[in-house]
Amino acid sequence: MKKLSGGQAAVEALKAENTKHVFGLIGSATMEMFDALYDAKEINFIGVHDERTGTHMADGYARASGEAGVILAGQNGPGATNLVTGLGQAKAAYSPVVSIAGSLSSGHVYRDAFQEVDQQSLFTPITKKTWTATSADRVPEMFREAFRVAMTPRRGPVQLNLPRNVLSANAEFEDMQSPSAYRSNSMPAANADQISTAAKLLAGASQPVIIAGGGIKNTGGDKQALALAEALNCPIVTSPGHGDAIPFGHPLNAGQMGPRGNAVASRLVKEADVILALGTRLGFNSTFYTYDNINKDAAIIQVELEPTAIGRYFPVELGIWADAPTAALQLVDALGKITDRKKADAWTEAYQAERKAYLEKRDADADTAAMPIQPFGLFRTLRDTLPKDVAITMDAGTLCLQATDALNYWQPKSLFTPLDFGLVGFSFACGLGIKLACPDRPVVSLMGDGGFGMTVSELSTAVDHGINTVTVVMNNQCWGAEKAYQRDFFGERYIGADISSPRFGQLAELYGARGFRAESCTEAGEAIKAALDCGKPAVVDVAMDPAALYSFRRDSFKHRGS
Questions:
Q1: Which DSSP string corresponds to 493-558?
Q2: What's the pLDDT at 562?
Q3: For position 500, which CATH number holds?
Q4: Residues pairing with 392 in the sheet
Q5: Given 181, 203, 224, which residue is the final one in a domain?
Q6: Which domain does 103 fall in, by range?
Q7: Could you tell me the CA-to-CA distances from 102 to 136, 165, 301, 429 in Å, in that order?
Q8: Does the reported pTM lie above 0.90?
Q9: Which residues of the chain fall below pLDDT 50?
Q10: Is the dihedral of CA 259, 261, 267, 272 positive or negative?
Q11: Do residues 201 and 175 make contact, with C-beta atoms less than 8 angstroms apart?
Q12: Which pLDDT does position 550 carry in this prediction?
């Protein structure tokens, strides 16, 4: 037993979890915890300029590393409320973020005290679970529970509120337990009878397709998914935002499907007679919840770790509650050697020819000489320039949405997006977290000028901590998605759509980073190569055509006509 303050116990609990990085912003409510972090040399504290962007860093770190990302808001009230957007994003992405915030002293609650806000109620809807510590001696218990809940499938963010009096009080503590003492490391396999039924459906299909989702990407299950696709010799598509679930170069990879995917992958899902949804909800971004994007007559086999996701949006022929990679290998074993596959092989052969033609046309149609720069010209430049081990982060907005399936993801966990939350201002900060998780990989963050303007202050964080990512600002001087809607559906009655920004390359130099400006695709390619090699955080400000806008959610404005 040893005597510690609640703040010291909190840091000891982080050390017991093998926490390597804590992102945070100092505040008076958690001074005991920060003082304890001073002595915790094994934990790297990354001081951020805004709690929201710090949460995106923790989110990116969590997604890339597979471990919990930790954010510490030192101040209650406004410091805590700044976490909300980041935690909403993390929840939509099933990202295991452990969020910690100082909280009002227990004796001041319900007294309209300075910076008082009901943090327990505030965070409950946007986390898997929210706790407010009640006494110093329970701090380690609540940290253990927070990490366990965050890391338990389906993973997601949690919030731990630590009142000032709890952090300052002393208590006796036993040695902290390691995570292995209270977490399960096993994943559920599928029922043998269901595997047998699924194998028969797949073996008998003439036009089968596999949809790989987050349940493959986030578990590193690409080899298992591809083993199944190869056993069936059938195409495999990915759900939007998970284009990196399987390597781009595999001959059975058709890319991302759905309203925001490519035409080849989308057609496969619309025409398939048997669809194996492998670790995917078949949710909004994949389908818009309509049969416009999935064959109504197909037999759907859905494999999901979250039982409430099975059959939620589309009725299924067979719902299997299981870990997706585990079920994929079970299916490989059950299929054995398949005979009489002439129709299915012809389906795959035709798809591969179509995919090859699509990729060739994608390059041929990309005008890299146009001035000002066109989106697909820049995307081709990126395809030709970026190394194969790059990790790419994206923002919301029209340019990034167009880029989602226009880039090549050569290895799993290479694409990090805010797709389900549609958040602008995510990409740059997320990339900083990814770089800390994967220091040997290049990280390139794509943003619009609006989103980067929201988060540019974190250039100080990148410079101060030597987090050398490259941010490509696709600068079209507007809020592109909304301006496209105003153009297409509201008679070009523009209000609030146009924005002005400084030269971001010059601004980066003022922060101590490297800055570049590109007004042609050739200049962009040269600048990105130089940025990757410069040994500093870098910003490439790319002048895009402000008129190159696209309305993605045309379905939202059907009532206004076309």
A1: --SS-B-----HHHHHHHHTSEEEEESSHHHHHHHHHHHHHSSS-EEEEEEB-TT----S-GGGGG
A2: 54
A3: 3.40.50.970
A4: 415, 444
A5: 181
A6: 2-181
A7: 13, 10, 46, 22
A8: yes
A9: none
A10: negative
A11: no
A12: 83
